[in-house]
Amino acid sequence: MRAVQITAFGGPENLKVVDVPRPEPGANEVLVKIVRSGVNPVDRSQLIGRWQWLQLPHIPGSEIAGTIAALGPGVSGLKIGQRVGVALRLFCGRCYYCLRGQEQLCESDPRSATAPAIPGAFTEGGYAEYTAVPAVNAIPLPDEVDFDAACTATLDGVTAWHMVDRARVEPGDCVLVVGATGGLGTFFLQLCRLRGAVPFAVTGTPQHAGRLEELGAEATIDRTAQDVAAEARRLTDGRGMNVVLDPTGAASWPASIGSLARGGRYATCGILTGAEVTLNLAPFYTQEQEAIGSTGGTRLDLAQCLDAIARGTLRAVIYKHFPLEDAAAAMAALGDEHRLGKVLLTIE
Ligand SMILES: [Zn+2]
Predict the structure, then answer these.
(1) 167, 171, 188, 265: least surrounded by Cβ within 10 Å?
(2) What are the residues facing 19 on neighbouring strands?
(3) How far is the CA of 249 from the centre of ligand 1 (A)?
(4) Has residue 163 been placed in a domain?
């Protein structure tokens, strides 16, 4: 089968189109014929060598939608030809956390203490014609959800859904959405509105303010020209934000924590711009603020996200499609200054 491998750590030029044997589904696995594969910053983290334990060559790709091509031994309840999205989290189903219904915290692989145990990172991923995944991760798609939207739901949709839950976004909350034009940000804005909250978009591409406001943003803050924390206070009568949803990491931390209201909740699900931050505990405790971690989401989160897309209350925002062979260009497009929404690989 055709696939794209990371052959060395570095830039997009290290993504090579190769011909490799089609995987065989093992016990309790299914083979998925991939139709769409998302290009996610998590793939770029692998490419640039942030996860040094990755064995090269490696097929990245953690956002996968397609049809079932074969069933491994022991699989029941799924059919060949069925349309599926691949649930994000690899989990054992037997550990302390899995038994509590928190499969996103599964402790079966010690590497998951510092990196999310997801397909395409802990397995060979979706930049390929086929991939083998655990049958419990193959989630049937509602008829109304096309492969573009399904692919987008499998990582960004489910991660946004879970983090909005973790941050306890409530009606009337003022919410700062950092990285608003990204795959996660476009979902955060919509999910805040669905909960009756008021989201404010932070972006480096203010020309998209109109599109962000269509997705739910009450106002847009240009982080390249404005003081984000000061603007967050100005927009909330001086109080600050009840919630900050920041998937971007250390670079935006001072502005994000500085934007919080008394009783405010900061939530993070990624470290693209760095992992180490400092925190002054004095204002943090006296104002009863919270910092909340969130990682991916569960199959329930994915099912709920797909239902919302099927009902038309949530929509995927797509930036561009690329053929599998152009994965390097697709990866480069992640960094496009004017990108709004998802970059997808078309595999047909
Ligand atoms: Zn487990």
Answers:
(1) 171
(2) 2
(3) 27
(4) no
- Two structure tokens written together for 316: 């995927």
> Would you say 147 and 36 are in contact if contact means Cβ atoms under 8 Å apart?
yes
How many angstroms is it from 102 CA to the middle of ligand 1?
8
The residue to which tokens 């925002």 are assigned: 317
Residue 233's pLDDT band (cuts 50, 70, 90): very high
Ligand 1 center to 97 CA (angstroms) = 6
- Output the domain CATH number for residue 179: 3.40.50.720
pLDDT tens digits, 24-51:
999 999 999 999 999 999 999 999 999 8
Instruction: Report how far ligand 1's centroid is from the alpha carbon of 104 (Å).
Output: 8
Mean pLDDT for the chain overall: 97
Residues 137 and 197 in one domain: no
Distance 26 CA to ligand 1 centre (A): 19
Cα of 276 from ligand 1 centre, angstroms: 28
105: Cβ contacts below 8 Å, ≥ 6 apart: 97, 295
Structural domain count, the chain: 2
pLDDT band at 53 (very low <50, low <70, confident <90, very high): confident
**Domain limits for position 216:** 168-293
Name the β-bridge partners of 268.
Answer: 293
Q: Give me ligand 1 centre to Cα 133, in Å.
A: 16
Output the pTM of the full model.
0.96
Q: Structure tokens of 129?
A: 């014609």
The pLDDT assigned to 222 comes to 97
Q: How far is the CA of 28 from the centre of ligand 1 (A)?
A: 16
Distance CA 83, CA 69 (A): 10
| 29 within some domain | yes
